[in-house]
Structures are given as C-alpha cells and as structure tokens.
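Q: What does the assembly look like in three dimensions?
Context provided by user:
Components: two
Sequences:
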Amino acid sequence: MANYVVKRVAYAFLTIFLISIITFALMNMIPGGPFLSEKAVSPETTQALKEKYGLDKSLPEQYISYMGKLLQGDLGLSLKQKGRTANDIIFSTFPVSASLGGISILVALILGITMGSVAALNRGKWGDSVLMVISTLGIAVPSFVVATALMVTFGVNLRLLPTMGLKTPLHYIMPVAALSFYPMAYITRLMRSSMLDALNQDYIRTAKAKGVSKVVMLFKHALRNAIIPVITYVGPLLAYTVTGSFVVETIFNIPGLGREFINCISGRDYPMVMSTTIFLAALLVFMNVLVDICYKLVDPRIKLK
Amino acid sequence: MSEIKLKKNPLSLQLNAEDFLPASEEEKRERIVMRESTTYWKDALQRFSKNKVAMVSFFVIILIMLCAFIVPVFYPYQYDQQVRGSEDLRPMQYSEMELQKISKGESVFPHIFGTDKFGRDMAVRTMIGARISLLVGLVASALVLLIGSIYGAVSGYFGGKVDLVMMRIVDIIYSVPDMLIIILLQVTMKEPLNRLFSSNPALAGFQQIGVGLISIFITFSLLYWVGMARIVRGQIMMLKEQEFVTAAKALGASNRRIIAEHLLPNCIGTLIVTTTLQIPSAIFTEAFLSFLNLGVAAPMASLGSLANDALDGITSYAYRLVVPSVAISLIILSFNLFGDGLRDAFDPKLKK
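A: Here is the predicted structure of the complete assembly.
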C-alpha cells in the first residue's frame, strides 16, 4: 500500500511538472511581452525593466526561478487588478467555488445513487423508463443550456428564485441544479447497470435463501458492491465540476474562482490565467490521487501493483 | 444381419456395416445449408438494424448531416448575410420591407427561426453551426483514432520496456486536467497561430478554417488520444498471442506489416465504436469553448456561440437559446445512442 501511495504521489508531481512546463512555454509564446504600453519607452528603460524582472536571462534560468516562486507558494501578480497578487485573488474566491462545487458533487452522488438503484430494482417498469429517459437527456444537454434554461424559467419568468450571487440557501438551488444535472444523470446510468450486475450475483441469491430481509439485502449486500464503479467516477466528476463552474458561475454571477478565471481570459490577464490553471490543475491531480487511493482501500479485491 | 448380434469388442478394428448404408432422407435434409454463413460485417449490420433506438439515431444523424452540409448551399440566405430592416424578427415573422415585397407579388423566403439583432437568418446560422460542430466532432475523432491507434498498437505489440515507458507517458497525460489545458491553449495560441498563417502563404488555407478550430484540433491531438491508446493496447496485447500472428512472424512479416495488416484490422470493431463515442465528447468540448467565446470567431457561427449570442436578449428572445440548444442536445444524444448501438452490434458480449 505504502509503495502504491508513493508511486502515485510521484506521478502526480511528474504531471504537475509537465503542466508547469506547458504553462511556462505558453506564457513565452504570448506576443507583446509584459512591458507593452501606449507610450514609447526607451530601449534603456525596457532593458532595465527586463533586468528587474529577470527576463534577460535564458529560458531555463527563467523557468527555474518561476518554479522556485511557485514552490514557495507565490503565484505571481495580476496584470489587470493592480496591486493584487494571484494568491490573494485565488484564495478569496476559491472558498465560494469550493462550497458550490462540494454541494453539487454531494447532490449528484446522493441523487444519482438513489435514482440508479431505484431504476435497477424496478427494471422494465415505468419508473425505470422515466428515470432512464431523464438520465439519457441529462448526458446530452450541456450545462450551459441547463443553467440558462433554469434562469429564464425560474428566475426571470416565474420569479421564484434569486438569479444573482450566492447569499442565501435559496441562491444555491439553481447553480447546484445546473452543475449537478449531468453527473447525476451519468451516475444514475452507472449505478443502474452495476446494481443490476450485483443483483444477479450468487451471493444475493444466497442471502435471499437465508431469509435476509429486503432492506439488509439491498443495503448490506447489493449496494456496497454496486457502489464501487461510482467511486471511480469521482475523479472525472471533480474535473467536470471545476470546468462546469466556469460557465455556471459566469451565468449566475457568483463571485467564485470560475467566474474570476473567465474574466481573466476575456481580459487577457495572462499571468492570472496561468496561476489559476496551475492551481486548479494541481488541485485536481492531487484529488484524483486521493480518490484512487480511497478506491483501493474500499475494494480489497483490487490488487495493489 | 439381425440374427446374430455379437457384442463388439471396443478395441476391434472390425467395421460397422451400418456405417456404409446410404443416408436416409432425414439425414440428407440435415446436411442442407439453410442459411449462408454470415461475415463479421453482415452479422454486425444485422444486429444493428434490429436495434430500433440505434436505427432512429442513425437516421437523425443523416438528417442533421444533410441539413448541415447540403441545405445551406441551396438556402436563400447566407449565414453572414445581414438583411437590412429585418433585425430581431420572431420566428416566421416578416419585416415591413419584406411585407411590401410580398404585396407586390414577389416571394420572400420566411425566416423560420427569426433573425438576430444584425438581421441574420437564424435557421441558416443554426445549420452552419451544426456544420461546425459536426466538423469538429468528425475531424477531432479522426485525429484521435489516428494517433491513439498507432500509439496503442506499437505499445501493446512491442511490450516490455517500450510498453512501460509509453504507458507511463499515457498515464501522465491522462491525469492532466484536459479542459484547463484546452482553455489555456485556446487563449494563448490564437495570436501566434494568426501570425504564422498570415506570414506564410502556404498556410493561408488554414486561416479560412479559423484559428479557433485549428487550436481545438491541436489540443485534441495532444491530449484526447490517450483513452483510445489504452483501449487499443489492451486489444493488441490479447491479439498478439494468437496463432495468426505467430504464422505471420514465421513467414517473415515485418513488425510494421503485422501491426497494420493483421492486428489493427482485427480490432476494427473497437476502433469504430471508440471513435464514434469520441465524436459527442468533441462536440461537447467545442460547444463549451464557443460558449465561453473561445471557439470560432464571428461572423462564423457554432452552436455554442449561437447559445452565447442568445444570452444578450434572453428575456425577450428566449427561442434564440432554445434552437441551438435543442440542436446540440439532439446531435450529442443521437451520436451517443448510435455509438451504444454500434457497441452492442460489434460486441454483443458487452450488452447489458
């Protein structure tokens, strides 16, 4: 186990190393450079500025100093929001996104697992068909469509729910619904097929033959085995939630990291785009490692190689 | 014959006289070939055509392709044509100028989905948007197929250290959060690509396709092939142990020939299914990027950018969001169901 954990963490660092090289290379591809302004600047001033920010050094040297700062937790400065560091912006907006994303993930997991199990238990009946139609639609409709459709119907036309910000629990309803619709649908399908598999296993027949009550059979025998494929989906689910939050936070005007990221992109605030990418990428990579380790812990049948 | 029935020694070489009697009518009938033996393709086609959902989605895809690639050629409006005086029309509504024309007896083609705020016909823009989405889906999946199958086949066939190194690279790329890197590439590559295309006349053709699309293709060929490579590698590793590979090797076939002529054609089913299921995910990505204004540039339309344009007047012109949204959902849904149908047809063992 310890071996496996060490290996996975080492790969995670390799991945982040790769991402940092990509971001660094892309940063150097952007035309113009950081010192472009409307006023004509004398070559001496540009030279002095370059020396000050270390841009006169060779690319590998620049990369090393860039990585050195990153490792110390310094993500750089924002070009557009003068005087604010990337750390400041990211750590003030991230908690908002984390609470929204966390709730959405929980909602998607709870609803998806319940709906998938209900569909499997009612296989072929109308309840199963209804749930399957919903989940098939769910994986085909993009999140930005769900978000805008919800906003127009419940926010603008019916005026039932607030459309801006994230102040009260009521504010959470629409963004969470938009963000969790696709993963919920996906988990429902996953759960239905794995539950059907589990219900056909010999140990379920044995349990039935023993006279185990239906509740114990479902929760103790079937559900615990059927839920394992869902755990493998948690990694992609995290990644989906992060990218989904870009759209949902922009549409509902939520002051989270997602909206900030999109603002940075449209404002061509390159350093902020880089720092946010590195931050989110590192977060996702390590969360994935965590999920994988949990997965191996939960299912003792999986061999640790 | 029947008088004496000797018990036959099981080891005796004596022949049975009954074995040499002419075959009875019943036995002859058993020998008649009732059905022609089916080939792999016929078998798959037969299973596929029995699957109603898959057939319906197949026809929907054909219909969408016709609308996207053929209909705009004959359509009376162009996607970037701004009809003066016909701004912000509702579906099937005519502007005053067009009404005057009609009263004079001229025929005016109706704006089935209305027009946008520049007086551009929404129906033809939706069709062009669908064309872009389909193009992205098909080209990106073809790139994924090309890179993924060759990489996976080489890795699986050679095995050992080659496989180890190649698969570790796949592992690392696999754990890179793709959407983040795609957004980053989209943001940063536009300018350099623009410069590259405008400075080099040989590459001018690319500029017409649009830098946004080109960078989508580049990102797909950089990141999305890993799933395909893993699947192909698994298949090749199973196949390479089989006798026909040993036979080919014994006949002196080169490694390249074995991979191209013997191994890859044998996983054609998997290749088709995986590629088909890649299409909706590519379309999804393109719509997402265009919705964030990172995809195609105006006046070109994609379904995602149409949805984004609709946000401006969402309270009064909600149908402008509905049309591209329904189109994109329909495309993704039918490709998903089509791919599922293909998988069941090629590999019925997987069917749930």
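Follow-up: The two ends of chain B are 57 Å apart (CA to CA).
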